[in-house]
Amino acid sequence: MSDIDEENAPKIHVTDQQGNEHELMALEGWRVMEIIRDYGLPIKAECGGACACATCHVYVDQDWLAKIPDPTDEEIERLDDAFDVEENSRLSCQIIFNDGLDGLRVTLAPGTEP
Ligand code: FES
């Protein structure tokens, strides 16, 4: 018997570059990028979460923007390297999941495909 109660586990909702929505089980302390990558969704995340590549760029749903800690200067600087940056752009490797983010919605930005 698995000790993970999938039904009640926290989830994130990810829309891929084709517009398909995926519901992913999320684990506290994981980077949102790692959750997306572990499910096999198309995210390049070239630098593995070191805030050095901007290929984990996502758009955060407006309802969630204020619930995520503000980006560091390093993240803001790195986002300059991303394509199609919007005011709700974030690097998913810099968002650490916690249970307060249960239900988070993000969309993979163009240019993040592997
Ligand atoms: S994985 Fe490289 S900046 Fe996020």
Task: Briefly say what this structure is.
The chain has 114 residues and is of the alpha+beta class.
Which properties best describe this structure?
about 110 residues; alpha+beta; Ubiquitin-like (UB roll); five-stranded mixed sheet; about 15% helix; globular; binds FE2/S2 (inorganic) cluster
Strand order of the largest sheet: 2-1-5-3-4
Instruction: Count the DSSP helices.
Output: 3
Helical amount: 10-25%
Instruction: Provide the succession of SSEs.
Output: EEHEHHEE
CATH class: Alpha Beta
- The total number of structural domains is 1
The coarse silhouette is: globular
CATH topology: Ubiquitin-like (UB roll)
Q: Residue-averaged pLDDT, rounded?
A: 95
Description:
With 114 residues, this protein is α+β, with helices and mostly antiparallel strands. It is built from 3 helices and 5 strands. It has a 5-stranded mixed beta sheet. The chain has a single domain, classed as Roll (Ubiquitin-like (UB roll)), CATH 3.10.20.30. The protein binds FE2/S2 (inorganic) cluster. FE2/S2 (inorganic) cluster is lined by residues 33, 45-47, 49-56, 78, 91, 93.
